[in-house]
Backbone:
């Protein structure tokens, strides 16, 4: 399977975030890339550098004011006397029905959902290359390859059309799905990350052409808290085209696979022409986030079930944090996926 990844994706190197109010080192580190590359190589993948696809495929799912914000906010932030090195919001609107603020501090609150997506001088460039890896993987699948893997880092599934959050800036899975829509009338996104894919859900919530399905730890006591419940089914034309499967904390392989079977049956009923797999490996039992208990062998079983859908598939990397088995978990998934092809 072809893997797409650009060295420029390393340049974003966030330092901190708040966890239950306490300052902690940011776990979304560039070294994740080395573990994921090793895992892809061990599965027999060839590594390719994507082309610069410009802003068009990104602007297809994100607002112009948000992209302008991402591009310029760090430079503007540095003009504030005594400002932090990284852009971290210190105010959030209760709701966003008011005016669009002109100031850097106001816009940071408007466009950043939480404190876990600090923006440095390099963030926008890295996020664009991460998205272009997804675009290139989608183009590869549209040209006839059965599947491709986009090693997207920074990840994307918590980014809404105009909001960053949860280590995410540009929604790579949404960009891939929208790119696939050029050739496919219907595209499904299956998100198997530990955390609910709230940004992806938000982007497609009113649409019937992109089915969004997410299996994740129950948000009642877990990030992203405000989204991911089973009664979120879409709205307007999109009603019935969003499907959430929250799982009890520490659920293991069998419970996950049971939910996956239900997810796959929903996808089959939708009859898409292409699939995006938002692949988080943080559902692993040894992941530092500790939300679910999927085993390394379990990732191969998950992949086999998804591959049995027999759909042209773009696999987009989402979460999965530093632990001994991170490489092996990716190898397990990609090998399991390939074994069904
Ligand atoms: Zn996650």
Residues:
């Amino acid at each position: 399977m072809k893997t797409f990844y650009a060295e420029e994706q390393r340049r974003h190197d966030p330092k901190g975030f708040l966890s239950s109010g306490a300052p902690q080192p940011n776990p979304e580190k560039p070294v994740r890339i080395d573990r994921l590359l090793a895992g892809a190589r061990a599965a027999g993948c060839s590594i390719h550098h994507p082309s610069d696809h410009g802003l068009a495929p990104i602007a297809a799912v994100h607002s112009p004011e948000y992209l302008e914000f991402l591009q310029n906010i760090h430079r503007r932030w540095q003009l504030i006397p005594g400002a932090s090195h990284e852009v971290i919001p210190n105010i959030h609107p209760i709701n966003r029905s008011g005016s669009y603020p002109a100031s850097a501090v106001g816009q940071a609150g408007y466009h950043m959902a939480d404190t876990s997506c600090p923006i440095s001088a390099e963030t926008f460039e890295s996020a664009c290359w991460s998205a272009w890896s997804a675009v290139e993987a989608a183009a590869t699948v549209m040209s006839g390859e059965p599947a491709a893997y986009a090693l997207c880092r920074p990840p994307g599934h918590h980014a809404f059309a105009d909001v960053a959050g949860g280590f995410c800036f540009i929604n790579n899975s949404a960009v891939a799905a929208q790119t696939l829509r050029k050739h496919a009338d219907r595209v499904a996104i299956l998100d198997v990350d530990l955390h609910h894919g709230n940004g992806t859900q938000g982007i497609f919530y009113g649409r019937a052409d992109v089915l969004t399905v997410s299996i994740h730890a129950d948000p009642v006591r877990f990030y992203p808290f405000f989204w991911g419940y089973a009664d979120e089914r879409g709205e307007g034309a999109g009603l019935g085209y969003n499907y959430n499967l929250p799982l009890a904390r520490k659920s293991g392989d069998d419970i996950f696979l049971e939910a996956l079977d239900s997810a796959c049956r929903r996808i089959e009923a939708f009859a898409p022409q292409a699939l995006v797999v938002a692949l988080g490996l943080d559902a692993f039992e040894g992941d530092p986030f500790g939300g679910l208990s999927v085993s390394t062998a379990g990732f191969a079983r998950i992949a086999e079930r998804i591959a049995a859908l027999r759909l042209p598939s773009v696999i987009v990397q989402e979460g999965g944090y530093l632990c001994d088995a991170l490489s092996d978990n990716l190898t397990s998934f990609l090998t399991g996926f390939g074994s069904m092809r």
The domain at 2-339 is CATH 3.40.800.20 (Arginase; Chain A). The chain has a mean pLDDT of 97. The first strand starts at residue 2 and ends at 4.
